[in-house]
Amino acid sequence: MNDLSSLLHEAVDDVEPADRLAQIRAGVRRQRTRRLWTWTSGGAVIAAAATVAAVALVSSPKTSAGPEPGLVTQPPSVATPTPDASTGPSPVVGVTLPVYYLGGPASSPVLYREFHRTGTSSPTLALVALTSSPDDPDYRTLWPAGAFAGADQSNDLITVDLADASLHDRPATMTQAEAEASIQQVVYTLQANAQQRLPVQFTLNGNPIDQVLGVPTSEPLANAPILQTLSRVNLTTPAEGQETTGTLEVEGVANSFEANVAWLLEDSTGTDVASGAITAEGYMAEKLFPFHDSLDVSSLVPGTYTFIVMTDDPSGAGNVDQDSRTVIIK
Question: Could you list the residue range(s) of the whole structural domain that residue 224 is in?
Fold first, then answer.
């Protein structure tokens, strides 16, 4: 197990998955496209994760509810992503910065985490990542370039200063759920950078601002509940576009019924060529649990594939969370 897995480790022994893969696949009606969000007519795939709850106000740091890692001194087993042109030259690899992005439909987005290589860490650098394009095309950020003037961290507070007042109100192109998720995107990313559940205060010209994107921000904000805010399954490895030969290493975090994390591998035509299930290290708590496995892909024809992981839905109604990556098998 690598250092990232060790960081995420919250052991739950002797948890064995039920043989539910056939039921999971039967209950899932997927579009044969790279972006796999809508599974039922008029419904969102992420039914298990509600629209981000009203943002909590706090006067003291909130205790972490689960393994949400901040910086790691040794990078996880992911391919080094191509830096976004807007961030300038690629820095020297030194630490791995967790950055959260939106995913899912505009009516009920949830947050997904990516790891970005960087030479150092700071709240301001984390904000730069929030205004840059994610590596996975299924994720998105609604924060425009230049949105933030900077950030600062003290012993009990993280302060985020906006560049100007243009983000005071919610744009007409943004849903209320997206606005709330975007605020939590900042909170979760900066807490991950700090490796503490510190409250986050939004300011303008150094003074608290009453709202950002139409969301109340006059007081410091806590992170909203994990299982209502984050996707219940999130891949760390493989990275988007990662190349592999013989074995596909899989790592991530999830909270799925009976710890079952189903996976599928599709070829470029959308045909399933392999499937199975991985047991996460737990599921009965308000947090995400690590999962990992090594999959033998040596018998597959070289080419581009889509690797998909999804949570279990015992009802069979297809109410699952999912994450996916494009992988290249050599």
Answer: 85-229
Residue whose C-alpha is closest to residue 37's, from 275, 287, 321, 270: 321
Residue 236: both structure tokens together: 């760390």
Q: 183 with 300, same domain?
A: no
**Alpha-carbon 284 to chain mean position:** 20
Residue 189 lies in a domain: yes
* Burial letters 173-206, b for 16+ CB under 10 A, else e: ebbebbbbbbbbbbbbbbbbbbbbbbbbbbbbee
Residues 204 and 240 in one domain: no
pLDDT, tens digit (0-9, with 9 covering 90-100), for 89-125? 443 447 889 999 999 999 999 999 999 988 788 899 9
- Tell me the Ramachandran region of residue 124: left when phi exceeds 0, alpha when psi lies from -120 to 50, beta otherwise: alpha
Q: What is the DSSP letter of 26?
A: H
Q: If you search the block for the tokens 């024809």, which residue do you land on?
A: 301
Q: How confident is the model over 121-170, as pLDDT tens digits?
A: 889 999 999 999 999 999 999 999 999 999 999 989 999 999 999 999 99
Residues 182 and 301 in one domain: no
Q: Do residues 242 and 312 share a domain? A: yes
Among candidate residues 198, 229, 260, the one where a domain is terminated: 229
